[in-house]
Amino acid sequence: MSYDVIELTQNLVKIQSVSRDSNAAVSDYIQTVLEEIGCVIERLEYVDDNGERKVNLIGKLGEGSGGLAFCSHSDTVPGQEEDWAAFDPVMKDGRLYGRGSCDMKGPLAATIIAAGRIDASQLKQPIYIVVTSDEEIGLLGAKYVADHSATLRDDKPTYGIIAEPTSMVPVYAHKGGVHVKVTSHGIAAHSSTDKGTSANFQLARFMAEMADLRDLAMRDKTFMNDEFNPPTNGFNMTMTDFGTPGNVTAPRAQCVVGFRGMPNSGAEEMLDMITSAAEKYGFEYEVSAHTPLYVSTDSDLVQAAVRALNGRSPETVPYGTDGIYLQAVIPEMVVLGPGDIGVAHTVGEYVPLSELTQAVDVYEQIIRDLCF
Ligand SMILES: [Zn+2]
């Protein structure tokens, strides 16, 4: 390969791929690089709700089935270019600055360079580079890949590494996500006439119960898991009456109650309490639930990561990843990547150069450990 991980990261940062736009240009470039290191490519495209073309790539290196998949996303949050040169990467003080340098074009570059060091003819199990779209706006690409990728369905990778920034700490679990959208219907009328029924007052009684439930979630150990920091489930609620003016009784009001479920943290009981309350008031509701990511710390994958990191003990994180959907096709996954999640999405996002180069070595060692 004619370039290193730093150059590849710079090249990726320069090709804008904010989630609201198409990621076709950056995907074309990634595909070229993957082909250059010998990958066979499966390319999955869809058109998003705004008519933008979205591209997902699965590159496979080596023959056969099983093996190890490296998973990244190619979209980024908006650049906020008015505040800095987001798409013009700069190296300074041992850091590479630019939108996506940390989340997660730098980590993606490290997985590609590591795969590029491997002689495919020596692999006993294949490796895969999975690159999704629309991660930052609801993991839409990962869902599409889990539902449509023939490569992942037929070849069944055994292990996955989600290369999101963890400051090179191996992460064996993250929280899931449960959302309940509750809608109350009223009758619109001028508020001076007493002829209307306000959906807001109906919903307010339910919302008061949710406020009590939040207090319960914050104090009752049944709903916590001390493996996580914080151990609580992030119980939250948002609401709207769709901009009803002050002199109208609201015809419709909606709130979304959500929490981040963890294993052994009463998630089903909590969901049941929310839906039972909605049913009691006769409200419409819709549930969407994502299971948390969780793999035993004794698994071969976690142990391989720990070995490659000289015994660094595995941890958990509170944020979600593409693993929420990809675990349907890749049974055991960890999160491990260069960069600090604390600078992701900020003006001045950066990845430390030392972690970028360390990541390449660590990924290479894990490949040699699991696939040779
Ligand atoms: Zn990310």
Provide an overview of this structure.
This protein has two domains: 5-174 and 292-371, Aminopeptidase (3-Layer(aba) Sandwich); 177-290, Alpha-Beta Plaits (2-Layer Sandwich). Helices cover 33% and strands 23% of the residues. It has ten helices and 16 strands. The protein has helices at 5-14, 24-36, 101-116, 140-148, 150-155, 199-219, 267-280, 300-308, 323-326, 353-371; strands at 40-47, 53-61, 68-73, 90-92, 95-97, 127-132, 159-162, 171-174, 177-185, 236-240, 252-259, 284-290, 293-294, 315-317, 332-335, 350-352. Strand 4 and strand 5 (95-97) form a beta hairpin. Helix 3 (101-116) crosses helix 10, helix 6 packs antiparallel against helix 7 (267-280) and helix 8 packs across helix 10 (353-371).
What labels describe this entry?
Alpha-Beta Plaits; 10 helices; binds zinc ion; 372 residues; globular; alpha/beta; 2 domains; six-stranded mixed sheet; four-stranded antiparallel sheet; Aminopeptidase
Whole-number average pLDDT? 96
> Helix/strand-derived class?
alpha/beta
Placed side by side, the strands forming the largest sheet appear as 1-2-6-3-7-15
Give the amount of beta strand, in percent.
15-25%
How does CATH name the architecture of the largest domain?
A: 3-Layer(aba) Sandwich
SSE pattern, N- to C-terminal: HHEEEEEHEHHEEEHEEHEEHEHEEH
Query: Which shape, going by the Cα principal axes?
Result: globular
* DSSP, total strands: 16
N→C terminal distance: 21 Å
The CATH class of the largest domain is Alpha Beta
Fourth CATH level, the homologous superfamily of the largest domain: Zn peptidases
Gyration radius, rounded? 23 Å
The number of helical elements comes to 10
CATH topology heading of the largest domain = Aminopeptidase
What is the count of structural domains? 2
Largest sheet properties: 6 strands, mixed
Low-pLDDT sequence parts: none
Heteromolecules bound: zinc ion
Oligomerization: single chain
Helix content: 25-40%
